[in-house]
Amino acid sequence: MAAKRSVAVLRPALNGTGSHLVRAQCPPTLRQLSRPLSIQASRPRRNSPRVPVSRRYASSDNSSEQLGRTGLYELHAAHGAKFVPFGGYSMPVQYSDLSIIESHNWTRERASLFDVGHMVQHEFSGPGVEAFLQTITPSSLSTLKPYNGTLSTLLHRETGGIVDDTVITRLPDRFYVVTNAGCREKDLAYLNSELEAFRSDSSNESVEWKVLENQGLIALQGPLAPEILERVLGEAAAKTLKTLYFGQSTHAKIDSTDAEVLISRAGYTGEDGFEISIPPYATEAVTQFLLDSAKDELRLAGLGARDTLRLEAGMCLYGHDLDDSTTPVEAALSWVIGKDRRANGGFHGDSIILRQLKKKSEGGGVARRRIGLVVEGAPAREGAEIVDEAGEKIGNITSGCPSPVLKKNISMGYIKDGLHKSGTEVHVVVRGKKRKATVTKMPFLPAKYFKEPTVAAPTTPASKTP
User: Fold this and answer.
1) Residue 279: is the preceding peptide bond cis (ω within 30°)?
2) Residue 375 falls within a domain, yes or no?
3) Number of compact structural domains in the chain
4) What pLDDT, on a 0 to 100 scale, did the predictor assign at position 317?
5) Is 43 a residue whose pLDDT tops 50?
6) How far apart are CA 345 and CA 40, in angstroms?
7) Which residues does substrate bind (predicted)?
8) What is the pLDDT of residue 283?
9) Dihedral angle at the C-alpha atoms of 302, 306, 309, 310, nearest 10 degrees?
């Protein structure tokens, strides 16, 4: 067991959280991040002026544009990070100690630490909060127990299109919601508008909304993540962690600091792991303490590895695999729609989404569906067309890269309904040439989430239950 170190954390009079809303434009592009060998990035000069973290600007290909910085920017630079614009921030794409592929494999074999502090963290509370969130999402939040979370989608009122994908966690007195940095401006405008509409109905109870500005958020991912985190928690919290299942959360304090953090068993890599929300004043100290506690097991990882990991795990990236015109049913996310919501509706776009859930013989169905592909030859990246044997377009690629683990070219995209079944052979046009491709189930790699054991149904009528 690693020796425990004392970390000095100075608590300011105010911790920097609040409801001040600062907006940035969206969305940035991650297209180049799936090309590990051709990333154009450079390490910033250490003596460059620091951009205040409370100011956030739009991503741009113009390097003169100012970008926001998370609370870990200086730590990234000290560890040899190469930065790229992403989600309105200057974010690390990789570090000097590992290539993107090496970082990818390190995560699969050991553990990596990702800075996801560019994501937008919200708190919603008040007596009307559940009704409000169930209006703008299709999830069964009424049955969600405290400290349990779910992936969900914010929906457009008329079309049922996805405004953004989000994770919603019920806490004892509020809901904790995380949305994408690239859609910050759009999401905040949407939430403002929806709250105004909700409050305009006098029959609705009150809702309070706070954006946790500058709140730290890190993702500890990989098979060694539980062991690493347990070592820096007190005995009681470490014991709780052992029975914390995927999608569940707990509050805890990191050893040798006074910072209470929210630990959620979640992630974007397909591996077991955690996302840790940290007060702004303690973000760098907690992150450095984690790194120091596991020097031979834990490495920092950037957006490059995060993108290839999430694609192997079949995870969507908003602005690429999801957008405003896509419904949850088309995106193969029907599972986020709760059983009671399917029966009763009551969420934005319910008439369209519930009809899409029906069989075609009943007037339902969709014209396209999200699928995975294994492509022969050169990798098929975003924008490539999926065609049939005759060369007729039947879909398009939204994400793609060589899989470091499978040693195959994998892609995600949308294809004409009826051709979405696993094993269907199609072609993808790459650099003007047709490449053979096979529709494949996702995730491409089996997920390793630490899930609650399912109770098997009784095989005999020996013990009947009401």
Assistant:
1) no
2) yes
3) 2
4) 98
5) no
6) 47
7) 275
8) 97
9) 180
Q: Are 76 and 115 in contact (CB under 8 A)?
A: yes
* Domain presence at residue 300: yes
Question: What is the helix (H) or strand (E) element at residue 299, kind and residue range?
Answer: strand 298-301
Quote the domain boundaries for residue 390.
369-447
74 annotated binding-site participant? no
| pLDDT tens-digit readout, 272-299 | 999 999 999 999 999 999 999 999 999 9
* Burial of residue 116, with CB atoms counted within 10 A of its CB: 0-12 exposed, 13-18 middle, 19 or more buried: buried
Residue 287: enclosing H or E segment and its boundaries? helix 283-293
My answer on whether 223 and 298 are in the same domain is yes
Q: Is the pLDDT of residue 441 over 70?
A: yes
CA–CA distance, 341 with 450 (Å, rounded to integer): 27
CATH number, residue 227:
3.30.1360.120
pLDDT band at 257 (very low <50, low <70, confident <90, very high): confident
Here the tokens at position 14 are 């105010």
Residue keyed to tokens 């294809």? 415
The CA distance from 270 to 113, in Å, is 14
SS3 state at 283: helix
Is the pLDDT score of 88 beyond 70? yes
Domain assignment of residue 258, yes or no: yes
* Beta strand extents in 172-248 (DSSP E only): 174-179, 208-211, 216-221
Q: Is 192 helix (H, G, I), strand (E, B) or coil?
A: helix
